[in-house]
Design goal:
The complex is a heterodimer of chains A (173) and B (374).
Chain A: H1 3-14, E1 18-24, E2 28-33, H2 38-47, E3 55-63, E4 68-76, E5 81-89, E6 95-97, H3 106-117, E7 120-122, E8 150-151, E9 154-155, H4 165-171
Parallel strand pairs in A: 2-5, 6-7
Antiparallel strand pairs in A: 1-2, 3-4, 4-5, 8-9
Chain B: E1 9-13, E2 25-31, E3 34-41, H1 49-54, H2 62-66, H3 73-88, H4 94-122, H5 126-147, E4 156-157, E5 160-161, H6 169-193, H7 196-202, H8 210-215, H9 220-225, H10 232-235, H11 261-285, E6 305-313, E7 316-324, E8 332-336, H12 338-344, H13 346-349, H14 355-364, H15 369-373
Antiparallel strand pairs in B: 1-2, 2-3, 4-5, 6-7, 7-8
Helix pairs in contact in B: 3-4, 4-5, 4-11, 4-14, 5-6, 6-11
């Protein structure tokens, strides 16, 4: 479907949940959705026979410094269109409803986003860290993250061989 | 009711276990030989590639993409390069596109050799694994000829490829794909694919319906094994894939039910033949001479914006979501991999199977651990 046609269809179906749309590169359409209406908006996108965005391609979090965002890449096999659904979140209290009911496969993606960005997904069945250890502090993909000097007594840094020739000599074999 | 009572036991499998294809762990709840539940525990190979990307210039990140899926590194290079090119609006010279397709399809052949070879090894069939690796050795030699590396190739560049074809490559490459398609696959199928024991181990094991596959975001051969004819090389062509004639093999319930482990195994066997066809056509259509790299501005920056680009890697949809703020480095790189989504379905389909069948299920999904953790 042509993008102009798709955008007018989306705005008629999503109503007030739709905050803005924009054309993206690679035949993609950006759809910014209100956080409070995310579940119903995704339900419409997935179940409305005229839209049929039934495939979740990808989910990620992003840190735009002034705010956080969650992004969902959806694909409609019927229309052969891609859309990028984005929800902006408050940096201090990032919370968004989980989409587990709409897409079973999103469970791990949301855990990863929680792990790396600290975004909480309300209603998630098992929201705990996925990639990092449970006792890790902080969320590394946030732009204000400072890497810890040590983890459980293990130093995380190492001497920079280019900056400190003395250290390099010391470690030579 | 049986007069013997049983009780559940919790078993640890991994992180160091020969059949987990890298470092990943399962917590198994078993009742005798029956599995109640297998809970995957991942993250042992998490290197923070997405974080590393934010600290490097766009081009310097390319060698790291080799390490996403080191079994098929060219496909990962290609996915990243295509995504950056779409975001920056770079046109790739035609010759470079053909060289990319040749390298990517050879890489797919080499990756599937590991994929079904390792599955057979996990099931105890050691000999066919050696046969598959013998052929992968020729692929390694070809790639060494092409770019000097045997595992992490780093062949693709943003805007093109690193080297042109060396003398004699086309002939050796043609001989390799002819041998694989017309001799090796027949030999391999005679040796093992029609073996009764193998069929008993794989048929009707780990059945994934088309609906479940889509629900759990399975992609690539795992999705096609469930009978869904969807291949990004056909359905959303990138590079020059629309110029080649090839089929998209899907599962048919050949020896059991649709979407079982045998279907996923055989889809990969069939895909190897199709990749051979693509390589041959690409060599035929390749015209002599021409640029292999587009001229890029220095210093190289990408206009501010966002893009999601997906390509067909041997393990399914390899997607790069890139955010640029117009600077020298990427602002955010998200890598969506086929193994990550394949892992999520193991817990639901492993309920009620035998412990030994879990190994067949993991192997048939062709999981590569670094691709899950990134």
């Amino acid at each position: 479907m042509e993008r102009a046609e798709l955008i007018s269809l989306l705005s008629s179906r999503l109503g007030s949940a739709l905050l803005s749309t924009a054309e993206m590169r690679n035949d993609d359409t950006l759809v910014v959705v209100d956080r409070k209406e995310l579940v119903s908006a995704v339900g419409t996108l997935k179940n409305d026979p005229a839209l049929g965005f039934t495939t979740l391609m990808n989910h990620l979090g992003a840190d735009y410094r002034d705010k956080l965002a969650v992004i969902y890449n959806l694909w409609s096999p019927a229309l052969r269109n891609k859309i990028t659904v984005k929800v902006y979140l408050d940096r201090d209290n990032p919370e968004v409803p989980s989409l587990e009911r709409a897409f079973h496969g999103i469970s791990w993606y949301e855990r990863e986003t929680y792990d790396l960005f600290g975004i909480r997904f309300t209603g998630h069945s098992n929201l705990k860290r996925l990639l990092l250890p449970d006792d890790w502090e902080g969320h590394p993909l946030r732009k204000d993250y400072v890497a810890p000097q040590s983890y459980n007594g293990i130093e995380t840094g190492r001497p920079d061989l280019l900056d400190e020739p003395a250290a390099a000599e010391g470690t030579g074999v | 009711m049986s007069k013997y009572s049983t009780q559940e036991m919790v078993l640890n499998m991994g992180p160091h276990h020969p059949s987990t294809h890298g470092v990943l762990r399962f917590i198994l709840q078993t009742d005798g030989e029956m599995m109640v539940k297998a809970t995957p525990d991942i993250g042992f190979l998490h290197r923070g590639i997405e974080k590393i990307a934010e600290g490097l210039p766009w081009q310097s990140f390319l060698p790291y993409t080799d390490r996403i899926d080191y079994v098929a590194s060219v496909n990962c290079n290609l996915g990243y390069a295509v995504a950056v090119e779409r975001l920056a609006g770079i046109a790739v010279p035609e010759r470079a596109d053909y060289l990319r397709v040749i390298a990517a399809e050879l890489s797919r052949i080499g990756s599937h050799f590991i994929g079904f070879g390792a599955l057979l090894l996990d099931l105890g069939a050691v000999t066919p694994f050696v046969h598959a690796l013998r052929e992968r050795e020729t692929f390694n030699d070809l790639m060494e000829m092409l770019c000097g590396a045997r595992l992490t190739h780093n062949y693709v560049r943003i805007g093109g490829v690193s080297q042109d074809l060396p003398d004699g490559f086309a002939e050796q490459c043609r001989a390799f794909v002819d041998h694989v398609e017309h001799e090796f696959l027949d030999e391999f199928n005679t040796l093992i694919s029609r073996n009764t024991i193998l069929i008993n181990r794989l048929a009707n094991v780990g059945v994934i319906s088309a609906e479940a596959a889509e629900e759990y975001t399975l992609t690539g051969p795992n999705l096609r094994g469930s009978g869904v004819r969807f291949d990004l090389r056909k359905d959303e062509p990138y590079s020059v894939y629309e110029r080649f004639a090839f089929d998209v093999p899907v599962g048919t319930g050949r020896c059991g039910s649709l979407g079982d482990s045998y279907d996923r195994y055989f889809v990969r066997i069939d895909e190897v033949a199709q990749s051979c066809r693509i390589v041959r056509q690409a060599l035929d259509q390749l015209r002599a001479g021409g640029e292999i790299r587009a001229k890029l501005p220095k210093p190289f920056t990408v206009p501010a914006g966002e893009v999601y680009v997906r390509t067909e890697s041997p393990r399914g949809e390899l997607g790069f979501y890139l955010i640029s703020d117009g600077g020298k480095n990427p602002f955010r790189v998200k890598i969506r991999t086929g193994s990550f989504s394949a892992m999520t379905i193991i817990e639901p389909i492993s309920q009620g199977v035998m412990v030994a069948d879990l190994v067949a299920i993991i192997g048939s999904l062709d999981i590569v651990a670094p691709e899950i953790d990134r």
